[in-house]
TrEMBL record:
Residues shown, of full length: 39 to 249 of 249
Family: Belongs to the class I-like SAM-binding methyltransferase superfamily. RNA methyltransferase RlmE family.
Source organism of this protein record: Laccaria bicolor (strain S238N-H82 / ATCC MYA-4686)
Recorded GO CC terms: mitochondrion
GO molecular function: rRNA (uridine-2'-O-)-methyltransferase activity
UniProt name for this protein: rRNA methyltransferase 2, mitochondrial
Domain of life where this protein originates: Eukaryota
Keyword entries, A-Z: Methyltransferase, rRNA processing, S-adenosyl-L-methionine, Transferase
Keyword Transferase: yes
Classification of source organism: Eukaryota, Fungi, Dikarya, Basidiomycota, Agaricomycotina
Coiled-coil region list: none
Active site per database record: 162
Domain Ribosomal RNA methyltransferase FtsJ: 2-205
């Protein structure tokens, strides 16, 4: 059983949009804001969907790296890092884990972010930090997403990220996401409470324009 309701959101998004999680060539997944671990438990290979420890299916031939401020109960085959994603040294720790299993380029096929900053009680501050997180996740993706050429398929890496309403969110989408991915969708999953102001961007096909 999954550790969080969020896992069902992820499966719902996956079912609706091209089963992006369950492509056979997925080798490395980074799960940001991962605790308690529902998204890290989701199976990344349709052949192993009945496996009791689904993530182990991927770890046989790939890597899952999970990052959260909170400590996570271990999940077999998932490398958990307890750290602030926004702290400078966290990237190096993710990088080190991505480089195992012969992944010399240190690229990820899928980057997921379900990060929700803890509400500070100050609305202005909370709204600002929600965009700051999206920007940081995008910067990370720019460096670590695998491009299409390298994996010999039409589509490059996939970024799924949670966001909250923000006055500059559309600018972020237009300037950062649209030019860099073949396909960008705004998603409000049914299983996310309709009153909440959260949504997701599902960005498929990283173009790696700057490389
Ligand atoms: N996807 C998870 C699951 O399925 O179990 C649920 C994630 S929960 C909605 C959001 C998480 O983001 C929280 O566990 C929180 O600790 C984490 N978080 C918030 N700010 C963070 C940061 N700066 N760095 C790392 N994790 C952060």
């Amino acid at each position: 059983s999954y550790r969080s309701r969020s896992a069902f959101k992820l499966l719902e998004i996956n079912d609706q949009w091209d089963s992006f999680l369950t492509k056979p060539d997925v080798k490395a997944v980074v799960d940001l804001g991962a605790a308690p671990g529902g998204w890290s438990q989701v199976p990344y290979d349709p052949l192993n969907i009945d496996d009791l420890e689904p993530s182990s299916a991927l770890t046989g031939r790939g890597t899952i790296v999970a990052v959260d401020l909170l400590k996570m109960q271990p999940i077999h085959g998932v490398h958990a890092i307890q750290a602030d994603f926004l702290a400078a040294e966290t990237e190096r720790r993710i990088h080190n884990l991505l480089s195992v299993k012969g992944n010399l380029e240190c690229k990820a096929d899928i980057i997921l972010s379900d990060i929700a900053a803890n509400a500070s009680g100050n609305d202005v501050h909370d709204i600002e930090s929600s965009l700051e997180i999206c920007e940081a996740v995008f910067c990370f993706a720019r460096q670590y997403l695998r491009s299409a050429e390298r994996i010999g398929r039409r589509r490059g890496g996939v970024l799924l990220m949670k966001h909250f309403e923000h006055p500059l969110l559309q600018k972020f989408r237009v300037e950062k996401l649209l030019p860099n991915f073949h396909d960008v969708r705004y998603i409000k999953p049914d299983s996310s409470r309709s009153a909440s102001r959260e949504g997701y961007f599902l960005c498929q096909g990283w173009k790696a324009l700057e490389e």
